[in-house]
Design brief:
Strand order of the largest sheet: 1-2-3
Distance between the termini: 40 Å
Order of helices and strands: EEEH
Largest sheet: 3 strands, antiparallel
Number of strands: 3
Strand content: 5-15%
Bound molecules: iron/sulfur cluster
Number of helices: 1
Radius of gyration: 15 Å
């Protein structure tokens, strides 16, 4: 990681301040508001809140 946040609990990647998974740039995050992200924080928040979609190659249904 190229930066460190004092609110990050590195044992589980949760934000101690927000008591939620760390998603840099999310609402309530203390990082500067003028930062630009390749993937918008809203999209990454949605990803961490959504269970993984099963792959077409998942063969567990047989
Ligand atoms: S969400 Fe923001 S404030 Fe919280 S740990 Fe991550 S970078 Fe730090």
């Amino acid at each position: 990681m190229a930066w460190e946040c004092p609110h990050l609990d590195q044992s589980d990647d949760n934000c101690r301040r927000l008591k939620q998974p760390c998603v840099p740039g999310r609402k309530g995050c203390t990082l500067p508001k003028n930062l630009k992200f390749a993937v918008p924080p809203e999209v990454r928040v949605a990803e961490v809140n959504t269970p993984a979609i099963k792959s077409d190659t998942d063969d567990s249904s047989h």
